[in-house]
Specification:
- This protein has 552 residues and is of the alpha/beta class.
- Helix content is 28%, strand content 25%.
- Among the domains are: 138 residues, Rossmann fold, CATH 3.40.50.980; 99 residues, ANL, C-terminal domain (GMP Synthetase, Chain A, domain 3).
- The strands form four sheets. It has a 16-stranded mixed β-sheet that branches.
- Helix 2 crosses helix 3 and helix 6 packs across helix 7.
- The longest helix is centred in the first third of the chain and has 19 residues.
- The protein is globular.
- 47% of the residues are buried.
- Keywords: ATP-binding, Ligase, Magnesium, Membrane, Nucleotide-binding, Transmembrane, Transmembrane helix.
- One of its GO terms (molecular function) is CoA-ligase activity.
Length: 552
């Protein structure tokens, strides 16, 4: 880890230990500065393709074993871009929708679209036709990339469609197939390329909407280049074999498994969908070294370690990266005890920050239990009192504000939301309650809007959820505010029990009451089969609040 800090303030005013500058109450990253290109007329696809590396295999389909090398990848990107431009008529500024499960085709489509100066937007394949229609009405795509099975969700929309493969469709207008585009020789004439600037929009990804309706996040080529550049300077082994366990329609899947790994020369094994035993079998088959998992999967692997290790040879696995929700010290230590050769590295980012925030990148850093890491390269941070607006210092809890070259441009066609979250000085108001300690490590406490107000006291749901996950009979848990006439709100827990468990409400309440202050006690418990979550692992509290309200 390096202690070099680049900022507009005099370095003598910055504490080298915490990264905090007293002069402007700003925390600066302790990582290496970002190597950003001086050329402002540069698209992110070109930036990635120019990165030198010795990688050979870019992507592997876990189910079929199909492989694509880096040379084949860039040939395919050029050919598909040529077809999209010449045959389909995609131009700079056009929006292209990707509606697909994880696939080798997704990196090719996205890199091709962005090389034209067109904009990639994605939709969750599990969404209903109505939900997809509303997103399309907002983003107005001119073309959709999808599969024959999912094309029915676009029936009647009138949009032109490129299919991943040939198959039966109804009510859609197919204008091309990926297999044909990838194998079609480039036209003899050189394509006249539109000039793409780094401030042009490259991606329009929709936020998860855990507390409200989804919003389209506009990310520029410069934002995405900054994300890729961060992986070029922060310590990550380019020889890692990543297993893509998260959906590629989400910011984490797209930015890390499409862009960062392609720039490093790393190999990505793509799971079409997540299933625990399919993931473990793929680790064995492809000797994967790195997984990205959400907290409940880590807990499941910890609880089922004996059976898992008896069935699967996980000796190749070295790193598990975790995001979505902070891991407690107990879960971290419990996992490492069961898998002593695997290190857990946490991280923190938002769709709006394009991968920037905080990360654990070394074993030494991972020993700071509960932390989500040091500030990312090129990132500045402030901790702001949400009530007074006062900017605070080390070890003070407040709303985290972030600033840097990867912070998104704002929300698409939503000026009100943009003004609320992005201020005129370029700060992104994350809505997360955090603090930064004496050594510059970032800790998340909870979502500002999700704090439960019990008789004037603030109760962080994440704290209670971390405790609940330590119970041997609990698979997963979520805590929500329940309206109460006397207290205002009180904590209610939704619990997913192990199949053989007969855990009761009283036992859950007693388990928590023995560990927390009286105002943090859980007052009500409901048992469910599973906790509703976004693809990135964030709890959909709004769904649980709606469920609880319907039963009052």
């Amino acid at each position: 880890m390096t202690n070099s800090i680049r900022s507009s303030s005099s370095s003598s005013l910055i504490d080298p230990r915490s990264g905090f500058c007293n002069e402007n109450s700003t925390f600066y990253s302790k990582r290496n500065p970002l190597p950003l290109p001086a050329n402002t007329s540069l698209d992110v696809t070109t930036f990635i393709s120019f990165q030198p590396h010795r990688g050979t295999t870019a992507f592997i389909d876990a189910a079929t074993g199909r492989r694509i090398s880096f040379s084949e990848l860039w040939t395919a990107v050029n050919r598909v871009a040529d077809c999209l431009h010449r045959d389909v008529g995609v131009r700079k500024g056009d929006v292209v929708l990707v509606l697909s499960p994880n696939s080798i085709s997704i990196p090719i489509v996205c890199l091709s679209v962005m090389s034209l100066g067109a904009v990639v937007t994605t939709a969750n394949p599990l969404n209903t036709a109505g939900e997809i229609s509303r997103q399309m009405a907002d983003s107005n795509p001119v073309l959709a990339f999808t599969t024959p099975e999912l094309s029915q969700k676009l029936a009647g929309s009138g949009i032109s469609i490129v299919l991943e493969k040939m198959g039966p469709t109804r009510g859609v207008r197919v204008v091309g197939y990926m297999s044909e585009m990838m194998n079609k020789e480039l036209s003899g004439k050189n394509r006249v390329r539109d000039r793409v600037h780094q401030d042009d929009t490259a991606m329009l990804l929709y936020s998860s909407g855990t507390t409200g309706r989804c919003k389209g996040v506009m990310s520029s080529h410069g934002n995405l280049i900054a994300h890729v550049a961060r992986h070029l300077v922060e310590p990550m082994d380019p020889h890692e074999i990543f297993l893509c366990t998260v959906p590629m329609f989400h910011t984490f899947g797209l930015l890390n498994y499409v862009m960062a790994t392609a720039s490093l020369g790393s190999t990505v094994v793509i799971l079409r969908r997540f299933e625990l035993h399919e993931m473990l079998a793929a680790v064995v088959k492809y000797r994967a070294t790195t997984l990205v998992l959400v907290t409940p999967v880590i807990v499941a692997m910890m609880n089922g370690a004996e059976l898992i290790k008896a069935k699967y040879d996980l000796s190749s696995l070295r790193i598990v990266r975790c995001g979505g929700a902070p891991l407690s010290k107990e879960v971290t230590e419990g996992f490492i005890e069961k898998y002593p050769t695997v290190d857990i590295f946490q991280g923190y980012a938002l769709t709006e920050s394009n991968g920037a925030g905080g990360s654990i990148d070394t074993v030494e850093e991972s020993r700071r239990y509960g932390a989500v890491g040091l500030l990312s390269s090129g990132v500045e941070a402030r901790i702001v009192d949400p009530d007074t607006g006062r900017v605070m210092g080390v070890n003070r809890t407040g709303e985290l504000w972030l600033k840097g070259p990867s912070i998104a441009k704002g929300y698409f066609k939503n000026e009100e939301a943009t003004k609320e979250c992005f201020n005129l000085q370029g700060w992104l108001k994350t809505g997360d309650l955090c603090y930064i300690d004496d050594d510059g490590f970032l800790f998340t406490v909870d979502r500002l809007k999700e704090l439960i107000k019990y008789k004037g006291y603030q109760v962080p749901p994440a704290e209670l959820e971390a405790l609940l996950l330590n119970h041997p009979d609990i698979l997963d848990a979520a805590v929500i505010p329940l309206p109460d006439k006397e207290a205002g709100q009180c904590p209610m827990a939704y619990i997913s029990r192990k199949p053989e468990s007969d855990l009761s409400q009283k036992q859950v309440i007693n388990f928590i009451s023995e560990q927390v202050a009286p105002y943090k006690k859980i007052r009500k418990v409901a048992f469910v089969d599973s906790i509703p979550k976004t693809p990135s692992g964030k709890i959909l509290r709004k769904d649980l609040i709606k469920l609880a309200s319907s039963k009052l």
